[in-house]
Amino acid sequence: MADIIDLSLIAESRKHLMKLLEARGINYFLSKDARRPFQLEPSRVDLVVRAAAKTRKANTGRVHVSAYERARREVRRELIRRVVAEMLQTGL
After folding, report:
1. Could you write out the DSSP letters of every residue in 22-42?
2. Which of 12, 57, 67, 85 could form a disulfide with 6 if both were Cys (CB 3.0 to 4.6 A apart)?
């Protein structure tokens, strides 16, 4: 049996992520722990997905439960990619 993925939530999550990255930068999504300077803050990732889901619900209705986890993974992947790019740019 195939899983159905709600791509609209992922697309909306990416839009919200890009807006937050423009407004606050990549450091907004990083943990403030000095021992782990490049660790993502899970609550900030959830914030992006919840905001996207709220917008999605207002526009089209209910969001499928499994779409939340898929959107979180996609947002985390994008943030990890950007953190690695920043690390490489600074020479770490």
Report:
1. HHH-GGGGB---TTSTT-B-H
2. 67
pLDDT in tens, 39-69: 899 999 999 999 998 887 666 667 777 888 8
| Range 31-54 burial, b when 16+ CB lie within 10 A, else e | eeeeeeeeebeeebbebbbbbbbe
- Decide: residue 14, CB within 10 A, 0-12 exposed, 13-18 middle, 19+ buried: middle
Query: Global pTM?
Result: 0.82
Closest CA to 17 of 89, 66, 84, 82: 82
